[in-house]
Design brief:
alpha/beta; 15 helices; 18 strands; 26% helix; globular; binds 1-deoxynojirimycin
Length: 557
């Protein structure tokens, strides 16, 4: 164990606002590691790979929902918030994961899903049984329909996964689901819902988790007059927003998080929240991270940005300014389990591509240059990890994994595929199980066929194939994470003049000065004056190179 890791291991629950600079690794549990050989990842699988995460050099893991779930939406349909899905393990496994991670100096963030439950949740089952007007129904959003016999939905709202956001039950009422019909929305006007979630937070805080990632944090509060949206837009995951939208990013949602902050602040150990809120106005996003609310929020504008120097610089400046206003750190994200992996987004032949526009995904017929995509992805991570604030790494990006764009239709499991009438393939392509070894039935993921098939050429991208190999993407990430921890922890950012199509900035930190140069164009650019190359995403020429090739990035001191 390195001495930094061992220091943290001595006392994993204290630290100086660790979440301001942390690198957090996202574990999509179904696809990380399968210890029990059923083809689906599990808690024991994560435990077995904790040493890998320690050696990678991350500060924390965020584990996607592990609760009992019918898996109508990959676990984001929770049937019981205080237990573990048997496919993933037991509560004892969760406890062991928390303890073992802490022993290795890794913090654990769990996913909380407050906007909706599964339709198999006891509360929803009770709501169905109890009928209109009951206290059981009042925990969800049930309404009468419109039209003479109430046969029309109460509003024109669309589900984010396609189709109407309302489903009718046999007694004639309709219930709201902003996502799949198997995910009924809670009624956050009901104090019982508020109390229940504060209690769920305590349940996991008592078990030692270091924080929560809050699912669709910007959707909990609905306009109580239930107005029509008046648009046919069915955009997926990238909604409208602002205080006047009937359900996205309403001002009232903040009162929920002020309550949550009071709960988490009663616990020692610097625990933290991160909001998942697709809010594209950085000023409105920053409201979630005011001092009495959440500690951090994902900055999805970085995910949305194209591989374009001006756009990225603008995004960086605006995000940092907005976060600074409220005293919060910025976060940086390139990929997650909902968007096309960035090695593939950046592989689009159209140079301006790379961002995630409204629900847009790379499709099987999109013209791609995978080598270019990987080259840019390697440069992008030096940009991401060079910035001040906290950063997220989505499992497999450290291997340079691309999106699997050609999964056979019969294996597609994302509800978007069915709900869109087979128009949109959905998010399975970024959820394919990780390759750990170059051989075996699931490339070391487990002993059985994985729940989604892995491309054969992923053998060469496996952890074992890249470990210790100079210049491999895995080693690039390891070096970057080590250098970041040693040199880039604190301190602001200062832009330097640089040729068009490139970004060059200086970080002055207590540990020294680092320059980060990123060339987003095709022609080589001249590097600023420096002493030593710390790390490069591309091979450089000569002992003291003066140029950085296209689509490359370098850290200098
Ligand atoms: C955001 C999650 O990341 C996504 O996977 C899920 O489908 C929706 N929220 C609904 O819970």
């Amino acid at each position: 164990m390195t001495s930094a890791a061992s220091d943290r291991a001595q006392d994993p629950t204290t630290g100086h606002e660790w979440w301001r600079t942390a690198v957090i690794y996202q574990v999509y549990i179904r696809s990380f590691a399968d210890a029990d050989g059923d083809g689906v990842g599990d808690l024991a699988g994560i435990r077995s790979r904790l040493p890998y995460l320690r050696d990678l050099g991350v500060d924390a893991v965020w584990v996607t929902p592990f609760y009992p779930s019918p898996m109508a939406d990959g676990g984001y349909d929770v049937a019981d918030y205080r237990d573990i899905e048997p496919v993933f393990g037991t509560l004892a496994d969760a406890d062991a994961l928390i303890t073992e991670a802490h022993d290795l100096g890794i913090r654990v963030i769990v996913d909380i899903v407050p906007n909706h439950s599964s339709d198999r949740h006891v509360w929803f089952q009770a709501a169905l049984a109890a009928g209109p007007g009951s206290a059981e129904r009042a925990r969800y959003v049930f309404r009468p329909g419109r039209g003479p016999d109430g046969a029309e939905p109460p509003t024109d709202w669309h589900s984010t996964f396609g189709g109407p956001a309302w489903t009718r039950v046999p007694d004639g009422e309709w219930y709201l689901h902003l996502f799949a019909p198997e995910q009924p929305d809670f009624d956050w006007e009901n104090p019982e819902v508020v109390e229940e979630f504060e209690d769920i937070l305590r349940f996991w805080l008592d078990r030692g988790v270091d924080g929560f990632r809050i699912d669709v944090a910007n959707a909990l509060k609905k306009d109580q007059s239930f107005p029509d949206v008046g648009t046919e837009d069915e955009s997926v995951l990238v909604p409208h927003e602002g205080p006047t939208h009937p359900f996205w990013d309403r001002d009232e949602v903040h009162e929920v998080y002020r309550g949550w902050r009071k709960v988490i602040d009663t616990y020692a150990g610097d625990r933290a929240f991160v909001a998942e809120a697709w809010v594209d106005d950085p000023g409105r996003l920053a409201l979630y991270t005011r001092p009495d609310e959440l500690h951090t929020a994902f900055n999805f504008n970085f995910v949305r940005a194209a591989w374009d120097a001006d756009e990225l610089r603008r995004t960086i400046d605006v995000s940092m300014a907005a976060a600074t206003e409220v005293g919060a750190p910025t976060t940086w994200v390139l990929s997650n389990h909902d968007v096309t992996r960035h090695a593939t987004r950046y592989a689009r032949l159209d140079r301006t591509g790379g961002g995630v526009a409204d629900g847009e995904r790379v499709r099987p017929d999109t013209p791609l240059d995978p080598e270019l995509g990987l080259r840019r992805a390697r440069a992008a991570v030096l940009l991401l990890l060079g910035l001040p604030g906290s950063a997220y790494v989505y499992q497999g990006e450290e291997l340079g994994l691309p999106e699997v764009v050609d999964l056979p239709e019969e294996v597609l499991a994302d509800p978007i595929w069915e709900r869109s009438g087979h128009r949109v393939r959905g998010r399975d392509g970024c959820r394919v199980p990780l390759p750990w070894e170059p051989a075996g039935p699931s490339l070391g993921f487990g002993s059985a066929e994985p729940w989604l098939p892995q491309p054969a050429d992923w053998a060469d991208l496996s952890v074992q194939a890249q470990q210790g190999v100079d210049g491999s993407t895995l080693e690039l990430y390891r070096s970057a994470l080590r250098l970041r921890r040693e040199l880039l922890g604190r301190g602001g950012l200062e832009w330097l003049d640089s040729p068009a199509g490139s970004l060059v900035f200086r970080r002055r930190t207590p540990a020294g000065e680092v320059l980060c140069a990123v060339n987003l164009g095709t022609e080589a650019i001249d590097l600023p004056t420096y002493d030593r190359v710390l790390l490069s995403s591309v091979p450089l020429e000569g002992d003291h190179p003066h140029q950085l090739p296209g689509d490359g990035a370098v850290w200098l001191t």
